[in-house]
Amino acid sequence: MWHHPVDPREADASAVTLLDHVAAAERAGHRRLRIAADQFYRTDDARIDDRTAAGLDGMMRMTVASVETGVRDHAARLLAARGEPALANVMRGARGCFDRVHAAGLFRDPALFGELFARVRLESIARALPVQLAEGPERPTMVARMAQASDRLVAAAAAAMLVAQARRSAAGDVGAAVDLVRPLHARIAWWVAATLRETAGATAGDRMTTVDAALTESVRRAIDPGGQLVPLEVAAMRLAQAIDAQPDELAPLLGEAIGDGRLVLFVALVARAGGLAFDRVRDLVIDTDGARLWVVLRALGLDRPTIARIGFALAEAEPARDIESFADRIDTIMAVEPADARAALAPLALDPDYHAAMLALGGRA
Fold first, then answer.
1. With contact defined as beta carbons under 8 Å apart, do 20 and 332 qualify?
2. For the chain, what is the total number of helices (H) and then of strands (E)?
3. What is the Cα–Cα distance from 260 to 256, expressed in whole angstroms?
4. What average pLDDT does this structure show over 84-91?
């Protein structure tokens, strides 16, 4: 009902224009993230909508509070066990690390800010997706069904993703586990430790080395890779790898993931099929412009109905996406040949630091 006949020559010309637009969108996406990080701290600027800003603030506070609880409580136990009850009591009473690390610029780190910002955006879109269960609400969700699959690798990966999802949903609880990759978790933990050290400073006196030893041991315990919990995004990528969707299986899987509200799994499936990093594809999904996502889907050879379903679902979830514009653009999207799409998107498969440097320099990437 949204199909409009288009002269093939016009569609081909539009396809070339779309591919050019993708290159520009890559550079613009990189700039937008830097601007978003700056604007979050500018109360007079509303480029980040209020809902996203509130969600981001909440996630920052929750993450710091969870890290603070673990580091503080363990350090207090160590100090008590080492014959420093007064310092242990000071440590137990320490609160309010967030305001200190926030003001000092912890979240101005592009990697940390980018991860939390992208999570907030993706979760917001996922919650607003229209539910389109293929076989009725009584049927288990796709990941729950996969957890019962005969393929043991798929079943184990699906069960792990369900656990990761439940843990993420409970992340607001005090002391909940922080499912960040180790470098980001470590950054927060060390800043929290430095803040707790300040709190203990007045009492510690010449026993500051004891405080430092306790805090250092507590941070290392918190970020020990042997005890690191698997982030939801990593669990989703492992499930996508276990599924190993073949070309003819990809479209129905993506359609079901969108209909089931499993946007994290949708991203992972696209990333796995395209040989791209999870965060690269996530950036495309949360970008309201959409051009790069459509070209990625064409690079995977997806058909018109599948791309249309995805596009309309995302537009319904986010009013900022112009559904009429997408309907008008569908012919242009489909005019892009998969081989041309793969060539246009080749920079996305480069090393992330290399690609970021290219974007920062304003090169054609």
1. no
2. 18, 0
3. 6
4. 92
